[in-house]
Amino acid sequence: MKEKHRELVRCLSLVSQLGITMLTPVILCVMLGVWLDNRFSTYFTLPLLILGILAGARSAYLLAKKAVRPDEERDDD
């Protein structure tokens, strides 16, 4: 039972971490884009939003890849 609880907590923390990892660059890029648009009357929000999505997706991919590696090694034993 203790092992199942530990695995559940591990999975929930990974999902939370993936969400935070994905949203942080998106929110920061949008905030920067809105600030630049208001300050200089430009249209940087959309390009920065796309950049934030790409950066968040890359970070989430690397995090998920790192989290899956130990499971693969453990299953081989």
Explain the overall architecture.
With 77 residues, the protein is mainly α. It is built from 2 helices and no strands. α1 runs antiparallel to α2. The protein starts with a helix and ends with a helix.
Radius of gyration equals 18 Å
Poorly predicted ranges:
none
**N-to-C SSE series?**
HH
State mean pLDDT (0 to 100 scale): 90
| Helix-strand category | mainly alpha
Task: Tally the beta strands.
Answer: 0
Task: Give a nutshell description of this structure.
With 77 residues, the chain is mostly helical. 92% of the residues lie in helices and 0% in strands.
Sequence-ordered SSE layout with sheet pairings:
Blueprint: H1 2-40, H2 45-76
Helix pairs in contact: 1-2
Q: Which descriptors would you attach to this protein?
A:
0% strand; mainly alpha; single chain; 77 residues; elongated; 2 helices
